[in-house]
Amino acid sequence: MHETTIAGSILKIVRARAIESKRRAISVSVRYGEFRNVDPESLAFAFAALRQESPRTACCELKLTEVKALALCKRAEHEYRPRLEKMYRCDTCGGPIGEIACGEELDITEIVLAAQPALDDENESATEHESATERESATERDVMVDECASELDGGKSERGGLAAAGIKSRGDTAFGEEKRNA
Fold this sequence. Notes:
The chain is built from six helices and seven strands, in the order αβαβββββααααβ. The chain has helices at residues 2-21, 40-50, 121-136, 140-153, 162-165, 167-170, and strands spanning 25-33, 61-67, 70-73, 79-80, 97-102, 106-114, 177-181. A hairpin with a 5-residue loop joins strand 3 (70-73) and strand 4.
């Protein structure tokens, strides 16, 4: 179930942002493409289970938005919605998919943090940092996160998505705007 790996990757980014700002995460918004092969119920379940690993994300809500697939046919570059019933062929000319215009996204679009700093920030941040460092030191889970990120995107997304750049190489700054709850 790669949804668990995706949920862990999302939470890693959210947790880092929350620790950096010394606040707790309220919510994270994620767009996923229809062709990304993500089961939203499994992702929500995995996220709910994994968010408990840190006090910074324990109450964080996951907001999911599906992006419907659009394709350009190979024959005449018509834009259409590829559907299994038509074997993903163009509605206008019957041509095969030439290019997927959208529907392969996996992007964090927003992270909402609490307006007030978290209590016991210094102790909590140090403890969370130590725990995160221990978990990140060449464990199988981290290897799976990186492999999943590469495998899901195939290295061709230009949208700044979660899987697109690999979490370690770009960090969380490429993923949406930070907002603070008043």
